[in-house]
Structures are given as C-alpha cells and as structure tokens.
Amino acid sequence: MAGALALLCVLSVGSAPRAPRTIASAPAAQPPGLVLVAGGRTQIGIEPRELVHLLEAEPNAQNYAGSISAETPRHERTVESFYLMTTEVTNEQYLAFVKATGVHPPEHWGEAAMRAGLTAFYKEEEALKQAARAAGRPAPPAATFDRRVWWRDHWPTSNWSIPKGDEQKPVVFVDFTDARAYARWAGLRLPTEFEYQRAVRGDTTRAYPWGNDWDNEKYAATSHLKKKGTLFPVASFPGGVNRQGVFDLAGNVWEWTSSPYAPFPGYERRVLEFGYGDKKRTVNALADFDEAQRVVVGGSFQTSQIMARGSVRRAADPEQSTDALGFRCAASPRSGFDAATFVLESELTPNIRPRDEQGMIAYAPENCVAVERWTSRPGAGGPSGYAVIESYRFALFTPVKTLPASDPQTLDKRSLEEGPVLLGFLSTSERMLAPDLAPGTYLVSFRARGMPPYPSARAQASGERDTKPASEPPIEETLGLDIALDHLIFTSLTGRAVRALRTKLEWANLRESRVEIVPGTHTGTDTDSDDTIGANDTLRFGLCLAGRGTQKGCLIDLPLRLVRGTIDASWMR
After folding, report:
1. Looking at the whole model, is its pTM more than 0.85?
2. Which residues, 6 or more positions from 398, have their beta carbon under 8 angstroms from its beta carbon?
3. How far apart (Å, rounded) are the C-alpha atoms in residues 34 and 184?
4. Which residues face 490 on adjacent strands?
5. E-assigned strands of 480-522?
6. Which of 251, 411, 474, 532 maximizes the CB count within 10 A of its CB?
C-alpha cells in the first residue's frame, strides 16, 4: 500500500452543510532531546583479519575472543534515518518517568534502605541459626541476600532519591524491560545495534565516533582513565562527540539495544593460534549466540578501549541490571510509527490478533497516520538541547495491509455475511467524546448497511454450526445500529463491540492517508446537535485502505471529537 489519503470533509456524515473552518496544521518537529541521524549504506562489524589484529594487540582480549568474533564478518546494511538521544538517559530524566507512572526506581536510589535491609536480613539469618542450635537441629542452609529482589519487594515502603550530585549521570540498574518501558512512556524506542553503528560510523569504517585515534583522558570514560571506577555526568567528554552532537557513544555505560544477539550473515567459527613454541596458544573464537538475549553496545567506564569500539556487540540477558548498564532512546521520523509498532508487539500479540481465511491479519504500521505531542523542560544541566520529557500524548490509526476485497460490493457482502470487516486499529492516550472511548487501543471494523443473515452464510455453505453464543446479542442490538446506514464498529481487544459511528465508504484510486486537527470554535454544551458540534476539537482521519489485488481502495472519513483545548497546532504529524 503506497500510503493513504482520504476524503477530508470537515462535516460529519449526515450533518447539514456549514461554512469551512480553518484547519490547524501541526509543525514538523522532532522529539525533545533527540537529533536526526541521516541514514544510508552502513558498514556493520569488522573483517576477520581485524579480529586477529585486535587479539594480537591486546592479549587479555583473547579471553573473550568469542564475543569479539561476533562482530564478524563486516557487511553493508541500509540503515534508515532516525532520531537519537544526544545523551544516555540520566537519573534526572528517569525520575520523571518514575513519578509519572509509579514504577520502581533503580536500586541505587535507595542505597541507605538497602543497607538497612541487608543488616536486618543477616540478623534474621543469625536468629534462625541460634534458634536451630537451641532446639538441637542442624542450622538451616545459608540464604543469599538478593539486592534486586529485595528492592522490588520493599521500595514502596522505603525512602529513596537520586544520590546527591548524580542527577546528570546515566541511570543504571535498569534491565531491558525497564529501559523499554521508559522509552514507550516517552514516545520513543530503543535503538537497534545497526542504528548505533550508524551513529558511530556514518559512511565510514571508523572505530570510534571521533575517528580511529585514542587518548586515554580525552574521548571517553573507560578503564584507561586515571580516575577509575566511576560514572561521569553525561557529555563530560566533548572530544568524543559524533558529528550530529551525540555524546558518550563510547564508554561511560553499556547501552541496551532492541536487537537480539544473533550471528551476522556469513558468520563462521574460527580457531586461532597465537604465540610460538611452548607459548603457542589456541583460541576458540566462537560466539555464544542466543536470540533471547539483547545486544548491548558502547563499552563502559569499567572496560578497556577495545570494548568501546563502535562495532562491539555484547550479549546481555534481558533481566540483567548492573552499575555499568544504561540506555539511550531513538525514534523513527514517521509520526506514530514507534507507538503503532509497540501496540503490535505488546498489545495486539499474535495470540489475540484477528484472523481470516488466509491466516492472521497483518497490519501496516509503516502506513499509520498519527498526531503526537511531547511536553518537556530543560534539565538541571546537560549539553545544548538536553531535555527532560514529562509526557507523551498521541492518537493514531494503523491500517491492515490489505482489505479482503477488491471492490465495494464484495466488501459490503463480507461485512454482512461474515461479520464486520477489520480496517485497522485506533490507539490513543486521549479521551474521545464522540464516539465515547476511553484512552486505549480499539479494533476498527466496517459494517455495511443491511440485515446480516443468521446463522452466517459461511456457516450455512460449509455446514458448520454457527459458533455465535446464543446468549450474546448481535451487535445491531448491542450498539443500537440503524441498519439502513454504514457504520464503523469499535471493538475492545477482548473482542467486545463498544461503540459505533456512522460512516460512508467510497472506492477510488489509492491515495495517502491524512490526519487533520479541527479546533473547537466556540463554547457550548457537548451534544450531537449541529449548533454545538463546533464546541469541541475534532481529530479527523482521512483513511485510504488498499483493496486486494487492485490499485484501488476504500476511502473512509473517521472524525473523532475531543474536549475543546485537547489538541492544537503544537501537535506533530
């Protein structure tokens, strides 16, 4: 599907004509605190001969030769343009997420409470041992204090705060789920390892964001620094910035990516020999790949320069959280794409996605249409452009890849005989007034005018029993539909039809879908009468969905009414 554009009529279907209103166009902008990294053909990984050279140059690296061999072979990959945070996510930025959502804070924010918990734990252990001895029983097996588990259980009743002076340091003790949750809340996502390498290398094969030279004190926080064993505030090493102004791509903390730890195309196990005579050593350079793990990149203040190279890809279990592992976020240039992809990955999972006779219905997040808006504030420090995101708001529609019909007659017939035809899903952070929808995700389907046969024509033709429970009333009754009109049906992800909206379908050449903001023009009571419809904002999706095996598609107008003042020209498209 080439993308979509539908009819843009300012009036809801069935309303009386009125004078056109001014349409507010949202400005093209980028998420706060991120910069654009231009895409292109990118050299990924290293050549096998580079592997040998690296292991010869630093003998200690031979102990993790398998990990370095995962960087081979070097190959070219197209990386699309993307936005990237100029810094690793800081404690200050993560605090906004913790306060907004009520999720657990990182464990190092509650170090005093942790120490008290550890003391209480060992006192209890000693009491159990003494009680066993007094009763003449063997002492119980020694238990281990698990800091992570204790903190997850006790943080709600513990005192915690960002350690003084650490506001601008990268947040650590965040596992993959934590990092991904922050990114989703902030309207962003985790970068892929290929985007990371693009940010480091651009169109070159350089080892570091600044080039191929190295200075222990100038470019990055690694184990080579004179001041060892500590995190640094972000952007403490301006000499290591890349050309787009992204800091700390090398060193400071390892960074999560969304990429599974899988071999590159053409990867081969290599057995290498180093030294001579009695000192000859055989090294088995075989990476322990596991696609359940995630790639982390960039090295840290605890690693040497060899692990801070842009091609390094280390494996990490998704539940891993350490004092040297953090993250930064990325975003796609297309509005709504990241949010739509997240819905497909986390809400519309394969076990609940609708199916038709060809299998699981596929969606096209690349063709979604959306409006979105970030609110942010400057941080207490940080480089130019650094920002603390405080909220992300959005509304989007993601279409199915292809409708199960090539003409309107077939679409109408299917919607009556087999049930409403799925068009896509609507996902929003905002409350809708008309149709009345709470924030969330809804399947949107088309039901043509007319009375459907019961049992279904398909069941009759195949001899199957109609599976619709006798106790479940038809949607015509549930939603009070006027069967003389076409409708859009909104269904929860549990399969319950919750709302309907009158519509009118047209069939035409494929176009690009659009979304427009129509701000409320006057105050008044929110009713469906024509004289007050302008009291509230309208978000109007003009949708074009591709028909099967044709260059035509159906055009549908989807107007959504919101409380006046909810959306305005500051929302991005």
Report:
1. yes
2. 336, 340, 343, 344, 363, 364, 365, 367, 368, 424, 425, 427
3. 15
4. 444, 499
5. 486-491, 497-503, 506-509, 514-518
6. 251
